[in-house]
Specification:
The protein is of the alpha/beta class and about 425 residues long. Helices cover about 40% and strands about 25% of the residues. The protein is elongated and about 90 Å long.
Length: about 425
């Protein structure tokens, strides 16, 4: 006897041998499609009829848009009951409810194909922007069709669009995709092109168990959790603002080694009074959505931290303000009340960020797949690449292209949508 090592192989074995085919041929499988104005008790009244005939539910799905219902039920009719009686009762009930109902017989080959498709891994494609246009959705759905994939579910995570003007509007839909993807790189490249052409963020990843089991989120600090580069702000007080900004820009673009650029910038701060640190900290502005995303994640039980090439004074300031669990930053050296132009300890560069993330997972006893990392610069890429979900936030093109995911058109709370958390859930439970 040969060994069957999966459900799909087991199904194929018995199907090829004719056992399942003969059994299915004796069954009656029907797809029921219901559309019309939604109302309380509608699904109940229809399933009550199915229950009277001991019908087996093989699949079911429902969507309601602006109070208009679309419901599909795939059923198996027991051989001891007549399908004509069941359909007649359903038609009569549909007439009473003022809805439309259609029936489609499903043959054995179609049923087997449906089972086989459910064996493929599912993909999640998320569209995130200030608004959602038909052009954006058309581009993405065309890319999906070109790769011979099928859209199974469309979920509106951002909820209904308000007719009033919002300060920071957001629109987000999530597409659940099935089918066998032969060339993931080709699809990713095309989605990136659509993103650039139509100004919308598009996330593409495999739907696996880790998507629902994240436990740790770490942020870069400068230009991610806060709106500025602190070292640039300090440089203004030191009278070297333009020079430091040029070096910062070069480092962010990956044109200069981070340690080299960092040492050069810090050296230019030599002699700056430490009292300036408090002045700069007082004027720090959080990035749009930063407080909202942290409050929500904390209530969900996530551990939250900063892993940054910035300075410890500001990392600790944000830790106290936001209630963060971890802060890893560079220790700015101060002697006699003056910045010396140096740091104490190792410089936190890209590889060091990845090393710190690994250390935190060991302390928390979790896997890297259960982590999320967000950053904007090239020195964040090592951290983003090993995290379960790595997100480039308003990043330079080089960083955006190399990162797994990106947010470029909305605030930091767009992360919640990429995690599959809806606006309704956020508003009902976490505000």
């Amino acid at each position: 006897m040969r060994f069957i090592d999966s459900e799909c192989m087991l199904f194929d074995y018995f199907f090829d041998s004719g056992l399942i085919e003969r059994e299915l041929a004796m069954r009656e499988i029907i797809l029921i499609n219901i559309t019309g104005k939604d109302k309380p008790g509608l699904t109940c009244s229809l399933t009550n009829i199915l229950a009277q005939y001991e019908v087996i539910i093989l699949d079911i799905g429902q969507a309601v848009i602006h109070d208009y219902l679309s419901l599909g039920i795939l059923v198996e009719i027991p051989s001891k009951h007549s399908s004509s009686s069941i359909l007649k009762d359903l038609l009569f009930q549909a007439h009473k409810l003022e809805i439309q109902i259609q029936f489609s017989a499903i043959d054995v080959k179609n049923y087997k194909g449906w089972v086989a498709r459910n064996g493929y891994e599912r993909l999640i494609i998320t569209l995130l922007g200030r608004t959602l246009t038909a052009e954006q959705l058309s581009g993405v759905t065309t890319a999906i069709a070109d790769n011979q994939l099928n859209i199974d579910i469309i979920t509106n995570l951002s909820g209904s669009v308000s007719m009033e003007t919002e300060l920071f509007p957001k629109a987000c839909i999530q597409l659940t995709i099935s089918g066998k993807l032969n060339d993931p790189r080709r699809l990713r490249h095309r989605l990136l092109e659509i993103s650039e052409e139509t100004n919308i963020d598009i996330s593409f990843h495999v739907d696996n168990i880790y998507r629902h089991a994240r436990k740790l989120v770490v942020f870069d600090m400068d230009s991610t959790l806060i709106q500025c580069e602190v070292i640039n702000e300090l440089a203004k007080y030191a009278g070297v603002g333009e020079e430091v900004s040029r070096i910062t820009e070069s480092a962010m673009n990956g044109e200069m080694n981070f340690k080299e650029s960092f040492s050069k910038r810090v050296a230019l701060l030599k002699g700056l009074d430490e009292k300036i640190l408090a002045e700069v900290a007082k004027n720090l502005e959080l990035t749009e959505g930063a407080q909202r995303v942290i409050i929500t994640l904390k209530k969900l039980g996530y551990k939250i931290g900063i892993i940054s090439g910035g300075f410890d004074y500001f990392g600790k300031y944000l830790q106290n303000k936001l209630g963060l669990d971890y802060v890893f930053t560079n220790a700015l050296e101060i002697k006699d009340g003056k910045i010396t132009g140096d740091v104490t300890g190792d410089i936190i560069d890209g590889p060091k960020k990845a090393e710190i993330l690994k250390t935190i997972t060991t302390v928390e006893n979790i896997s890297l797949q259960q982590t999320i990392a967000i950053g904007d610069g090239s020195n964040d890429l090592p951290m983003l690449s090993i995290a379960g979900l790595g997100i480039a936030f308003h990043a330079k093109p080089l960083v955006k292209e190399k990162a797994q995911k990106f947010i470029s058109n909305v605030g930091l709370d767009g992360l919640l949508y990429l995690m599959g958390i809806s606006e309704r859930e956020i508003r009902q439970n976490f505000q």
